[in-house]
Write a structure and sequence with these properties.
about 290 residues, mainly alpha, Farnesyl Diphosphate Synthase, two-stranded antiparallel ribbon, about 70% helix
Length: about 290
């Protein structure tokens, strides 16, 4: 299964390399730097795995897989900016605003977001019905905006220095991190134009549980990871006064919560039907990760 996931990751990398602008201008270089400098490609892998579970050919999944990764990449560029998290390191390299400059980083993020919707529209050329591509565009927009990732980031900034309870923290991360992870699962399944409420509900439960587990594991790694492995500063959230699952629950309980959510996500797949081995492997890889 690891070979399959690695092959899908390479497929996405190749497609992204073709889709990104190849010019030698500063903006084009920054866009490629932001996207092609490593990364787990979790969200594209979820698109491929959920789509395959529903019997969708890979070629019809490429546009959505690349689009969701472009949105993720843009969000990282903007999250790292001085006005946001003010990070100097991402994936073991200088962040985009450090490698280039702040204005170029802002423009690169803007351009990556626009490119994502151009790419998802290409699903029609890949053989998807227009109504499916329209639904995918709407899904991606909602998961990225005020009702999803951007709204979660705003709430995250508002909570700095505060002491929210676990429900508020979970809601914030359900938007900031979880919305795009759930959208990736939905994007893959939507390519099959499913009319199966049981399977749809099971996949959505998997996506929600996985999204929260991912963030809890991120908090664990921020507190107890190795910066040489994670590629970013350890303890940065604590230093900024940001509430985390580890600060509210403690390190051991946070780890237990992540494991429990992954177990719940895998249980949901038992009701989903289809070939879900890749989805199961992704869930386990998430909780076992060290970066």
């Amino acid at each position: 299964m690891a070979d399959l996931l690695d092959a899908l990751r390479a497929r996405c990398d190749d497609a992204l390399g073709r889709l990104l602008p190849a010019g030698d201008g500063r903006l084009e270089q920054a866009m490629r730097y932001a996207v092609l400098g490593g990364g787990k490609r979790l969200r594209p892998l979820l698109v491929y795995a959920s789509g395959q579970a529903c019997g969708v050919p890979l070629a019809r999944l490429d546009p959505a897989a690349c689009a969701v990764e472009l949105i993720h990449a843009y969000s990282l560029v903007h999250d790292d900016l001085p006005a946001m998290d003010d990070d100097d390191l991402r994936r073991g390299r200088p962040t985009v605003h450090r490698a280039f400059d702040e204005a170029t980083a802002i423009l690169a993020g803007d351009a990556l977001q626009s490119l994502a919707f151009e790419v998802v529209a290409g699903g029609v050329a890949a053989g998807l019905p227009a109504e499916v591509v329209l639904a995918q565009s709407l899904e991606l927009a909602r998961a990225s905006g005020a009702a999803g990732m951007a709204g979660g980031q705003a709430l995250d900034l508002a909570l700095v220095g505060g002491a929210p309870d676990i429900d508020i923290l979970s809601r914030m991360h359900g938007l900031k991190t979880g919305a795009l992870i759930l959208a990736a699962v939905r994007l893959g399944a939507s390519a099959a134009a499913l009319d199966d409420p049981v399977r749809t509900s099971a996949l959505e439960r998997y996506g929600r549980d996985l999204g929260l587990a991912f963030q809890i594991q991120d908090d664990v790694l921020d507190e107890a990871g190795d910066s040489a492995v994670t590629g970013k500063a350890v303890g940065a959230d604590r230093a900024r006064g940001k509430p985390t699952f580890t600060s509210l629950l403690g390190l051991d309980e946070a780890r237990r919560q992540a494991q429990a959510l992954v177990a719940s996500a895998r249980d949901a797949l038992a009701r989903a039907g289809g070939e879900t081995a890749a989805l199961e492997a992704l869930a386990q890889r998430l909780v076992d990760r060290r970066a």
